[in-house]
Amino acid sequence: MESEKKNPHFPDWKIWTITLLVSSQVMTAFQVRQANQELWKTVVQQSQELVQQKQELAQLGQHLIEHQQNDILYKTTLNKVIEKETYVLEEWIQKIMREVRRMDLSKVKTSELVTELETREGVKMIIVEPYQNGEVSVEGPAVILVIMD
Q: Residue 36: pLDDT above 80?
């Protein structure tokens, strides 16, 4: 009896059942390990993709900063050009105005002067046809020009 306690004898069905359970547990452990390895690979891959995206965002941010700096430089330069051109135009306009003031109106035809005066505010034109008499009545102050041209 003592020998049976030291080396107990199990029926074959128990041995097969235990063998199947152990095999099943080993296979399940193997499958779980494979699934964990796949998950870990996915985590590592996503981590690498996140690092790459972070680098791309940093580059994009740097490009945006450079673009803003270039835009500021462009606008500053454009403002300087506009200021310079405005100054040049103002000088040119003043020069033209001085020339207009000095212009010798004696060389301008009377009909051109009359045509220009006719367009001005506060000027009233009364035409008297040839061989007709005309009267003008005004309340001053006024200047009456009689042009027979």
A: yes
